[in-house]
Amino acid sequence: MPYSLGTRLSYEWERQTTALDLTGNLAQYQARAVLVQAIVGNFQPVQLIFAWTQAENIPLILGQVNFFMEFNLCFYRHELAFEVQPRAR
């Protein structure tokens, strides 16, 4: 998650105590774990975990931590479509 998005969600960098190590082109940046209450589509809210970094020019990436543990996705490549369903509880 880009730094500016975290601040818009009212996160304070100094209060996030769980540090993460990023790799690749983001390895030079510090990162913190943040828990976000998210609504995906018309489904019930879920807790998603994101790596919040001090980098700015990065996309928000779903699935890096627990998105695929909360949702099942089915990709239909030939139709250029996908389907999202919440996991069975």
**Spatial arrangement of strands, main beta sheet:** 1-2-3
Provide mean pLDDT, rounded: 93
Helix content: 10-25%
Total number of strands: 5
Please indicate the count of domains: 1
Report the structural category.
mainly beta
As residue ranges, the low-confidence spans are: none
How much of the residues is beta strand, in percent? 25-35%
Termini distance? 27 Å
Counted by DSSP, the helix tally is 2
Write the element-wise H/E pattern from the N-terminal end onward.
Answer: HEEEHEE
The largest β sheet comes out as: 3 strands, antiparallel
Global Rg: 15 Å
Outline, from the CA principal axes?
A: globular
Question: Mind explaining what this structure looks like?
Answer:
This protein has 89 residues and is mainly β. The protein has one domain (3-86). The protein has 2 helices and 5 strands. The chain has helices at 3-8, 67-70; strands spanning 19-20, 31-38, 46-53, 71-76, 81-86. Strands 1-2-3 form a 3-stranded antiparallel sheet, with no helix packed on it. A hairpin with a 7-residue loop joins strand 2 and strand 3 (46-53). The longest helix has 6 residues, at 3-8. The chain is globular. The two termini are 27 Å apart. 8% of the residues are buried. The mean pLDDT is 93.
